[in-house]
């Protein structure tokens, strides 16, 4: 179950100021070692072998991404590098040192079609959502005009 907490948009110049939104609340973290142990339980491969493969996967993916390649893991999704840039007045004025402000990794989960033709992203099929119950919930009062 994916849990959420509520928060209010309090930005001064926002057109949605005062509106309430949900934000996903992670309730734990799972690392490579735990994943390897669970994979070992589900197949004939030993945890140490799974760890070796997953560790190498991270290194190879880094090499491929930095070479400008999209990395697609069938049944999982695709990874690629994205840029944070500032604008330049002309194409000639754009330079990496001046205009590239940062890098990030983009992930797109694989999409499959269900029996009724609906597109469903891997990892989201059958997910349920509920409010996280261990935080200070906002009051139920009506907002001031």
How is this structure best described in words?
The protein contains three helices and eight strands. With 145 residues, the chain is of the alpha+beta class. The strands form three sheets. The protein has a three-stranded mixed β-sheet, with no helix packed on it. A three-stranded antiparallel β-sheet has the order 3-4-5. Strand 3 and strand 4 form a beta hairpin. The chain is extended, with a radius of gyration of 22 Å. The model has no long low-confidence stretch (mean pLDDT 91).
| Average pLDDT for all residues | 91
The structure class reads: alpha+beta
The count of DSSP E runs of length 2 or more, i.e. the number of strands, is 8
Principal-axis shape equals extended
Described by strand count, sense and barrel closure, the largest sheet is:
3 strands, mixed
Overview in brief:
The protein is 24% helix and 30% strand. It is of the alpha+beta class and 145 residues long.
